[in-house]
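Re: [help] complex structure
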Amino acid sequence: MANPPQALRGMRDFLPERMILRHHVIGVFRRVFERYGFAPLDTPAVEYADTLEGKYGEEADKLIYKFEDRGGRQVGLRYDLTVPLARVVALYPELPKPFKRYQIAPVWRAERPQKGRYREFWQCDVDTVGTSSMLADAEILAVLHDALVQLGFRNFVMRLNNRKLLKGLSAYAGVPEGEEASVLRSVDKLDKIGEVGVRTELLEKGFAATVVDRLFDLLAPGEGDDVLARLRVPLADNPDAQQGIAELEQVREYLGALGVPETAYRIDLAMVRGLDYYTGPIFETVVEEPRIGSITGGGRYDHLVGIFSGRDIPAVGSTLGLERIVDVMEALGLFPEEKTRTQVLVTLFDADTTPEALRLATELRGAGVRAEVYLGEKGGLKRQLAYANNQGIPWVALLGPDEIARGEVTLRDMRDGTQQAVPRAQVADRLKSAPSG
Amino acid sequence: MANPPQALRGMRDFLPERMILRHHVIGVFRRVFERYGFAPLDTPAVEYADTLEGKYGEEADKLIYKFEDRGGRQVGLRYDLTVPLARVVALYPELPKPFKRYQIAPVWRAERPQKGRYREFWQCDVDTVGTSSMLADAEILAVLHDALVQLGFRNFVMRLNNRKLLKGLSAYAGVPEGEEASVLRSVDKLDKIGEVGVRTELLEKGFAATVVDRLFDLLAPGEGDDVLARLRVPLADNPDAQQGIAELEQVREYLGALGVPETAYRIDLAMVRGLDYYTGPIFETVVEEPRIGSITGGGRYDHLVGIFSGRDIPAVGSTLGLERIVDVMEALGLFPEEKTRTQVLVTLFDADTTPEALRLATELRGAGVRAEVYLGEKGGLKRQLAYANNQGIPWVALLGPDEIARGEVTLRDMRDGTQQAVPRAQVADRLKSAPSG
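Output below.
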């Protein structure tokens, strides 16, 4: 067969080297999530189409991977992890509240594949359901901060804003009721097209110049510590805005107590987040270098989780974008250099000594060393060393009749080719204390 | 909404308590797999239908979750992890050989849901591709043994057989060419319907009584150490049988060197394995109590992986059945008792002391303790203790103005309700040394 079948367009195979990076990131996420009391959840990849549709907006609904199963049921592949969470919360009322869960799993979207956009990608979601306390919002931010620091990120900023505050801002500016979303979509582009660009777009959309002026009176410079203080007076008559400000101030207080330094976050009035369903604090994390967009996105959404329960259930959470985080970490050199998890390749000398080589490998594994035995049929030493080299295995153990007679093992350092004889009983300790990778 | 939407029939939500068990098992698998040098691989959930079809047999093909995607492509959900492995091996010829990979991922089958049979379930596959050496077969068995022992299994037996030997047996008995599979399907039922049952079924299928007699001459008692020795003479003229015997003997020799005790495996001539594609050693693991069928299944399959490469590529591997293993472990009480991963709930006294409680939780997390803060809005102490109790959190930390003034924390043991004041600096150590769960 000349052309082996490809993976589907927009979907990817993750070969071992890439998987090791992904496992590293997911392992850190899980450790941090669990350290804050978040518990793992998993849900099926396939859901009834009814469960998925009508939750994400019309445009998004078109991207759901829908099909009819053999029983004639309309079903679809999971589009995100939030709607399944809402379904689980409704279906199992016995779950304790607040319910703190994380889910790390692939989702599917029938998007046009392009650079950095895939039809299958993993989301890492962490959410707290069933409390309106700003403690929960602050905790999500602390989790994001902790996870990114544990991964080695140093230069990142979590941008905070609040949908209630944005609503108040729109009202203050005189945006007609029902047109807030359109205004916010333009404001969201401030980063990309600047103030002049946003002003032009708003005027073209038909908003009055006075409205646009009043909006920018408050928006610019809409960053930094004094933003909230500056807004309190002009927005004094707007209860939405006042509550939004109070929420952000409370989050800020808790963040301090949770050990998140002030340099790690920033109020940013122009940060809007795309999704319509947010109702309170919203947040996203951007890294300055490389410029890759946001690596986390989330906020409070008090109306979505209750959609299957028939009543509002407050919730707050965030997604961490696994793919982008891996990309950024690669660009920044934040990964330990590790092409393979194997620490040593135990080579085979001949058929007679093979059992002894297996015993050595077994001893090493028993001592906690990740030891691989060369399994190829044709395997002179040269081929075995090439295999170790190709795989990036840092050490090779040689065990011929001489070594066996002397109770030794020859250890070869694959980085510089040096060899030394080591008493067999000391091999595991030697490998464990060696710098790896 | 009176009736919240269910998960699809035959698919399951895994709530935290269950997920903690699954994570435990998967964690052990990964650690053991990597200790032998197996590397992680992941592939998309969706494949071209062409890639999946025609590999599993006609009956199985009907169970593939097929659909047409929005681009009009015929696609299907992954049916197992072996065909994607074959595709990956063909697509990336640069992968070093032998290629040792593991994949732990869900697969989908449009089966009729019934007890213990699901439409979405996880497979844990470990395979070595690109070598005919029996070392690879023995290593897979050592991995299975090691993984099960690490999980706490004590009474299990890995049953071994060999397809070449079975072929030789059939020829010796006089089974007409092309009818071996039918004979083997009957022999496979020996466990269930006994020798009389299998004899009857074979006669009903139209096999001659002499054929059935000759078959059972060799089959019974087809277990134990001397089986191979007993077969060598009668099957002396059959090259397939001789090679099958030699392969099993070599596997047995290597297993000893790999530290697998003789009590852990047994040659079982009546063990056939369902799939047609095996070509050499085959193996499965059964536990005696509870009787749940096999928890691992695998063998050598030298013609399947090359299907997309246009040439034979030898391979050997096994699946570990995650769902069954979790079920058996629950039945045997092999899991650590752990409803939650959280070690301590830090309670909130009032708004004034909340920041101090957050600082305590942050300190504990920094010291590696999994510490949860109570996030509910309404939270008298009684409600907070009920939450801890309901969640199975073993310790609760109380921090009121008195404790803060004294630099102490009151630790409450949720198992017996006893409380003690602990100097704040010692809380983390106290929790880490406490027996958990």
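Chain B has a mean pLDDT of 92.
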